[in-house]
Amino acid sequence: MLGCISVFAGEEPQTKTTFSIVSLNVDGLPGRVAFLPVNTEGPKSLGSERISKYLADRDCDILCLQEDFNYRWEIWSRLFAKYQHDEWSGGITFEDNEIDIAHLQNLKFKCDGLNMLWHNGIQSDRYERVAWQQNFGKFSHDFDDIITKGFRRHELTLSDGIKVVVYNMHMDASSERDEQKGNDGKDREARISQWKQLRDHIMERLDDRPVIITGDMNSYYHRDDFKTEFIDAITATGRATVSDAWIEKCNNGVYPEMGSEPLACETLDKAIYINPTDGNSLELVNLTIDRSNYLHNGQPLGDHYPLIATFRYISYYEQGATRIKQTATDANGATPGAYDLQGRPVDATYKGVAVTEQGKFLNK
Amino acid sequence: MAFSLWWFRENVVPLWPICIYNLILCNMKKTVLLLLWALVGLVTTAYAQEGISDYQVFHETDTIWHFGYQGVNLYSRKMHRIDIAYPSSDKDGNPVTMSGYVCIPDEVYSGAMPCDGMLVYNHFTNTAAYEAPTRGFAVGIDFVMANPLKPNYIVVCSDYIGFGLTADRPQVYCIGDANGQASIDCLLAARKLLDERGISQGKYLFNAGISSGGYDALATQRVRDMKYQDEIRFDKTIVGGVPFDLETAYEVYIEGKDDASWDPTCLLMMLDQINRYANLGFTYEQMFTEELSPHFKEWFLSGKYRMAELLEKTKGKTMSDLVRPEFLSKRSPEYKTFTAAAREYSLANGWTPDSTASYYVMHLARDKVVPTAAGRKFLEFLHDFDYDGKTCDGFTKSIVPERTRLQTNFLIPSESHTLVGGIVCVLKLAATLTAYPVLYYDGELNTHYADFIEPATLMGIIKLLESKGYDVRGMVKKLTEGSGEGGTDFFSMLSSITQTLEEYGTSLEEVMLIASDSGVEISDILEVYQYLTADPDPAEAKTRRVATESDALATEPMMIDYYQQYLTNWLNEETKDK
């Protein structure tokens, strides 16, 4: 049983700052792997440099990138000067991997294609990389299981000292072919499993910091019931409120019904934010799906459009105030683990790069 | 205990004659010891006859399997073989302790590689006692496991009655489903052993065999279908050169009774088996000529000789040289008695096949050991089996894998049952074991592959070529121009084809039979003929380009086009990058 201890004196919210975050699938799969065509229509080297320039021009505070595989230097080329970044986990290439051609079923690239960048002056205090426990589609269904897809979690301290938690992720895809033939049941199943895994991961670590979850979720409200499994489930705990930036700004606050007609304006990418009850919170200032600038010669630079959200951070207390918040307690009321005065876990369980595959740490 | 049963059976029982010999020579002390030794052996042998209640490991060894021929080993693979005694039953349902092995690739046993699945391997005709699988004889399966594809499967193989722990009994050969029961029981025992040792059994389960092993693989499938549907499901049963229908085989043998190119041993063993299994009561003198009857027991039943040695003994002999004429005449009462018994103990008799099972059936088009017609009977049996008053569409013959649950290969016009048929079948088995974990990784047939094979029918290929811009009708018209009055006249075209085929040593009849075995019926051919020779819609014809000389290779353009597209893309990209 989980319970919450909340000691809070009613204070006026204090607006501290605004910041922007962009989520973009940079479509960085190579045109070809060995002799196999993979992404012949993708931006490849030159297009990736254009994407880099676009991102540099947008000048967002936090960049959450997906499919940053084989063109990382091109993607980073215009961003080195102003941004710090987390680890690049590798590309899709046979050259760097010992491939057992006779047993291709054992093929799995270690990379996740995720990358996060943040403006100089922002600091990542704690970083964690987690693989999805369930994937579907190794040699079909969009090949999700051929790479180590998952999410990355950063605890960021922005330049003025405010703290947010940001998740960047890439969930399982469905191919158009499978959707048309009604053969995407297992893809949906895998995605819902990933939403649940994400939910549990967030809730186990939730403290007073607001959380932003963004990335390529490959999810539409009409086909994946993540509203029930993620948004409603978290809300039901009473520990936080959950909002989807697109619902708030582009769909009049209305969640599309499961099984309803697809909406052309909905994208597979999401920007969801979680405000802990009685904690610090975020307010969505603006959301842009940049379809008008992410172009070259009238053609999109990649197969996803950038999703740019601007948030205002609202602090309910001064830094260093004495309080205990949002700590999980077990059935006996005891508090597991150690927490600081802000209710944040202080142990260093997830130091360095920790890739989990089916719950096992591979690299601590 | 089981090891001692086997050991005493093999080593102590033969001591009785030595004991008597020593007794005569008055070497009393030694004789008493030997007698005591033999007595213990007899007691344990009797125990073995009663059967055991659970599997027992009696021998375990690291061994090496080879891929090669006549002493030249091209590849090898380390295997860990566990020989087990396990409870089973004979054809009458009496309990019997059988032996078999569970053989695990070293990489899987050591945990270096994950296990992809299990293979129930039904060994082919063995006649020498030392050819028992638990004695290390692994010919056939070694080609599957030690070839460069190295499938990561665990092999389960029963010795069958007549070998290993049951070497004192006559073997059961291509009749009834006793060996099928032995394989199923061996699999169940192997599963238990692997569970107890914590060794993964992987996702896939195959059942395979060649020649008489193919017969036993079908018997295994039959036993599974009839008794173990809830516990066992084979992803595929892969067989080659199968004497499925003994009656048909017998007929063909009789037709070739004076042809020395036929291998007579199969008929000899078949007659002996039916006679014994059905208790017909014929003596060897009644069945076989004087040339064979005094030697039959020694040659075929003593366990001293391998099949290769028996072939040497019967080399150059026709069936008429070895079998009495009344057994080679379709009008004789003996023939009728034998065919009636063969029918009674046929696998087809009483088998309700699982219509969702999957098969690969291979047979040489001119097999001179196991008649092709006897294997073809299995295709007919499956397809014509009455499922609620209808034949099963799933068992429609096709050479294209995964388009059907009855994939066939009756294409190869060879007579060499072992060297061609056997090798084709084991390599097919190796390829299937290796491909399955990739093709079915996601629990369904790979969708890209499924899309690729979707148009793989005669009409499908024509439509695909046309969709790529090829004027197939125009090509056919051009090819058949001048082949008789009217150009595309069907009969003059047939006449022209027949003439060409004769030059290649075959006939239209044989080609049509091969086509039929591959799932292409005359109606399909006529449909294609009608389509290709009909006048195209003029508006449609305008959209197609004119056929060129190079279009004559009608089956190649599709593949060439496929790769050309990607090669061109690749070259363009390479040039662009630089």
Overview of this structure, please?
The complex is a heterodimer of chains A (364) and B (578). Chain A is built from six helices and 18 strands. Chain A is an alpha+beta fold and 364 residues long. In chain A, the strands form five sheets. In chain A, strands 5-6-4-1-16-13 form a six-stranded mixed β-sheet. A six-stranded mixed β-sheet of chain A has the order 7-8-9-10-12-11. In chain A, strands 2-3 form a two-stranded antiparallel sheet. In chain A, a hairpin with a 2-residue loop joins strand 2 (32-33) and strand 3 (36-37). The radius of gyration of chain A is 20 Å and the shape is globular. Mean pLDDT of chain A is 85; it is low at 1-11, 318-330 and 347-364. With 578 residues, chain B is α/β, with parallel strands linked by helices. Chain B has 24 helices and nine strands. Chain B has helices at residues 2-11, 15-24, 28-50, 106-109, 141-145, 178-197, 212-227, 246-255, 265-277, 284-287, 296-301, 307-313, 319-322, 333-344, 372-384, 417-439, 447-453, 458-467, 472-480, 490-503, 508-517, 522-533, 538-542, 556-577; strands at residues 56-69, 72-89, 95-105, 117-122, 153-158, 204-210, 236-240, 359-362, 406-409. A nine-stranded mixed β-sheet of chain B has the order 1-2-3-5-4-6-7-8-9, with helices on both faces. In chain B, helix 2 runs antiparallel to helix 3, helix 6 (178-197) crosses helix 7 (212-227) and helix 8 runs antiparallel to helix 15. Chain B is globular, with a radius of gyration of 28 Å. The interface between A and B is medium-sized, with 24 and 24 residues.
What is shown here, in short?
Chain A is of the alpha+beta class. In chain A, 18% of the residues lie in helices and 27% in strands. Chain A has 6 helices and 18 strands.
